Amino acid sequence: MDIFELRLALQDGSVAVLEVSGYINNEAGEAIATQARRLLDSGTRTLLFDLHATRIINSIGISLLLEVLEGVLAVDGTLAFCSLSPGIAKTFQIMGLAQYAKVFTDRETALAELSARS
Amino acid sequence: MAEPERLHFVLSRLPNAELVVVSGVEQLGAALGFARDTLDEVKLAVLEACLNALEHGGSEVEVELVAHQGREPWMEVSVVDRGPGFDPGTVASPRLNDKLHAQRKRGWGLELMRRLMDRVEILSVPGRTQVRMVRGRRGV
Predict the structure, then answer these.
(1) What pTM did the predictor assign?
(2) A16: how many CB neighbours lie within 10 A of its CB?
C-alpha cells in the first residue's frame, strides 16, 4: 500500500490525469512535481490527480503539491483532485486547498466537469 | 482494567523510518477498534511528529505508542528528540495564500497534528523535546 507509483493515466487535449498510489513523501512529491512541470510545459492546462490508492501524505509531499499548484496557477490552469481518502480530504481541508484546487468524489465526475470547461 | 499495550521505537535518520511507527499505529489502532479513517488521521499526525523530530532533533528519536482499552479506548503517542528545542508558542499557523507565494512551502506539520488529534502537548527545552498526542476512538 505504501509503495509509491505515478502513472499518466490519460492525456486528452489539455487535460491530463495522473494516478498516484502509495505514500507521498519527499521523493514521491518530487516525482509528481517533475511530471506536472513536463505536462504544463507541453501545453496541458488541467491536471487531475486521482488519489484513490493513496492514504498517507506527509507535509513535505504537501509542500511539493503546492509547487505544482503554483505552476498551474502561473499558466491560468486548473488543478484538481479526486477519490480522496477521508484523511487526505481532511488534510486538504485544513490547508484550505479548496480555495485554489477542485476536489471531486471520483474520476468520472471530475472528467465530466473538467472536460466541459477545457 | 487491562494494562495498556505499548510499542516502543527508536528511529534513526533512515529514509522512511517514520513508516515503522505508522505500522505500529495500525496494529494498536486495530486492537482498539479504531475506524480506518480515524486511524489514517492518527497516522498522518504521527508521521508529522516523527518527521519534525528526525529533522530538527538530532540523530535518534524515541517514539512510544500506548493503546488504552476501556469503554472509551484511546491512543497516546509520545515522540521525544534530543535537539535544541523550540518554543511552540512562536510557531504561527500556516496560511495557504502566504505559502503559495513563498519560497519555502513547508511548515504544515504542527498545524496538522493539532487539527488531526484530540490533544497535542509540547514540552521543549534545549536537549529534549517531547510531543505528546492523544486521540480517542470516536475521532475529532
Answers:
(1) 0.92
(2) 23
